[in-house]
Write a structure and sequence with these properties.
Layout (H helix, E strand, L loop, with lengths): L8 E7 L11 E2 L1 H20 L4 E10 L3 E2 L3 E11 L3 E14 L8 E18 L4
InterPro entries: HOTDOG_ACOT, HotDog_dom_sf, Thioestr_dom
Protein name: 3-aminobutyryl-CoA ammonia-lyase
Pfam families: 4HBT (PF03061)
Length: about 130
């Protein structure tokens, strides 16, 4: 029996290693955040439906700020609509800690306010029953 309810939210945090820097300035490509959205969507499906489900589509993705190697990123998925087999999810990604290579090779800081870097809307599908 489904426990899917509008408002169910799952949050993950991840340190972004320097091995994932893809562009100058230690920038990380947007696909990295989309992969994290896939992970958090999987847990939403497990929490709501006792099944990993399948990611069906994104209806909107907005890259608002850069993600950099050395950041700690928090991603969140919230159910915004529950259908018979589908669930619409709202995603957000925030940098909560940022590397500070300008101070030293291993310096970092906790941001006073999380920095929203990406938001998206997507749909997952779970089996019937």
């Amino acid at each position: 029996m489904s426990k899917a309810t509008v408002g169910l939210t799952v949050t993950h945090r991840r340190y972004v290693p320097y091995s994932h820097a893809h562009y100058a300035g230690n920038l990380v490509d947007g696909a990295y955040v989309l992969a994290l959205f896939g992970d958090v969507a999987t847990e939403v499906c497990i929490q709501a439906d006792d099944d990993e489900g399948l990611f069906a589509s994104y209806s909107d993705v907005q890259f608002l700020q850069p993600l950099r190697a050395g950041d700690v990123v928090e991603v969140q998925a919230t159910i915004s609509r529950v259908g018979n087999r589908s669930r619409d999810l709202d995603f957000s990604a925030y940098v909560v800690c940022r590397g500070r290579p300008d101070r030293s090779a291993s310096a970092a800081e906790v941001l006073a306010e999380p920095l929203e870097i990406t938001r998206a809307k997507g749909t997952v599908v779970v089996p019937v029953g």
